[in-house]
Design brief:
The chain is of the alpha/beta class and about 375 residues long. The protein has three domains: about 60 residues, Winged helix-like DNA-binding domain superfamily/Winged helix DNA-binding domain (Arc Repressor Mutant, subunit A, Orthogonal Bundle); about 130 residues, 2-Layer Sandwich (Nucleotidyltransferase, domain 5), CATH 3.30.420.40; about 160 residues, Nucleotidyltransferase, domain 5, CATH 3.30.420. Helix content is about 40%, strand content about 20%. The chain has 14 helices and 14 strands. A five-stranded mixed sheet has the order 5-4-3-6-9, sandwiched between helices. α6 packs across α13 and α8 runs antiparallel to α10. The chain is globular and about 75 Å long. Keywords: Kinase, Transferase.
Length: about 375
């Protein structure tokens, strides 16, 4: 660093592991020993870092290692789905301390769902008063800066609702809200891929279809938070299916879990849920596997366009449908590698989610921590 590093910037070095001793900090920042000592003392006093046992010595007295204090607070988070919501408390490293899943119909509206979330957080907190921030992922397009729901895939009654002030009335901390697939993409990238790549496309295939884009290591939200809304891109030869948006043959209307169930019922299959479809796939039912694979091909058609446009290093498929149905993943691969450009697919990987359902709550926690533990926020809190 060419200028004097602030305490907040020193904390980032310690959190990232780039500098774990006072000598490291001096080497990386160019700060004098007294200046390093002053910033470290400030961070120690505020409980943001702790001193670990003595590190390995290269001769002489071993250096004392500095470590970010992950137990210095908690982050309540929730990742809302159409029918099921994951609720958790995370530490300051984004690790889950407690978690509970609830069956919640988000279409009951914010007046029902948000109080239920807050009551659940309070039960998990059990009297703790060290909340540093709250994170929420919702199945809707979100204007991130304001936390306003702009349009919703499955929760129309939420449109126009500004969520943070409602939660902040009870919890006087920063509240961050984003699209559900964005937070899943953040969690998957940071935990699984951040050390090796900066560009990732996460596609969630569940009741509905959506995507989250990691570009240059950060989430790409677009001008109004609508980046990644691939569900309403039409496919060829979709059969004229009317989508809820009013258009025909949107990929959401022909390749989602809802669409697969509808198609199999039309073919006379007695399927009430995706678990029933899974049973037919495992039994080798040829017609069911054909329906699922065709859904994958339609999805691959849309993803191939995104691959040509964004050139991600990896496409990650998550959500109930992608995680349960290998024929769908195979259909996606078949079309993407055939229809995307040779350069875009030269080293492209198409993989299933490794974090699975937990990616959403991890992403929510990391979203909050990136905000409240940023160098600017840490320095502002010291004033």
């Amino acid at each position: 660093m060419s200028r004097l590093a602030t305490p907040g910037e020193v904390l980032q070095l310690i959190r990232s592991g780039e500098a774990v001793t006072r000598a490291d900090i001096g080497r990386v920042t160019g700060l004098s020993r007294p200046a390093v000592a002053h910033r470290v003392a400030d961070l120690l006093q505020r409980g943001l870092i702790v001193e670990d046992a003595e590190g390995p010595s290269t001769g002489g007295r071993p250096p004392v290692r500095l470590r970010f204090a992950t137990s210095g607070g908690v982050v309540p988070v929730a990742s809302l789905g159409a029918r099921r919501t994951q609720i958790a408390l995370c530490d300051l490293a984004g690790e889950v301390l407690q978690r509970t899943d609830l069956d919640i119909d988000v279409e009951e509206g914010p007046g029902v769902v948000l109080p239920l979330l807050m009551d659940t957080w309070e039960k998990l907190l059990d009297g703790r008063d060290d909340v540093v921030g709250i994170g929420l992922g919702v199945p809707a397009t979100v204007e991130f800066a304001a936390g306003r729901v702009e349009s919703a895939r499955v929760m129309a009654s939420w449109t126009g609702v500004v969520i943070p002030p409602i939660i902040a009335e009870r919890f006087r901390v920063p509240v961050l809200v984003d699209n559900d697939v964005n937070v899943i993409a953040m969690g998957e990238h940071r935990v699984v891929y951040a050390s090796e790549l900066d560009d990732l496309l996460f596609v969630k295939v569940s009741t509905r279809i959506g995507a989250g884009v990691i570009s240059g290591g950060g989430i790409l939200r677009g001008a109004l938070g609508a980046a990644g809304e691939i569900g309403h891109i039409p496919v060829r030869d979709g059969g004229g299916v009317l989508c809820r948006c009013g258009n025909l043959d949107c990929v959401d209307s022909v390749a989602s879990g809802t669409a697969i169930l509808r198609e199999l019922r039309a073919k006379g299959r007695d399927v009430m849920s995706l678990a029933d479809v899974t049973a037919l796939v495992r039994a080798g039912d040829a017609e069911t596997m054909a329906v699922v694979r065709q859904a994958g091909r339609w999805l691959g058609e849309v993803i191939s366009g995104a691959v040509n446009l964004l050139n991600p290093a990896v496409v990650v498929l998550g959500g109930d449908v992608a995680e349960m149905f290998q024929p769908l993943v195979s259909g996606v691969r078949e079309v993407v590698y055939r229809r995307s450009t040779q350069l875009a697919t030269r080293s492209l990987r198409i993989e299933r989610s490794r974090l699975g359902p937990g990616a959403g709550i991890t992403g929510c926690a990391l979203m909050v921590l990136d905000h409240v533990l940023s160098a600017q926020a840490v320095d502002a809190a010291a004033r």
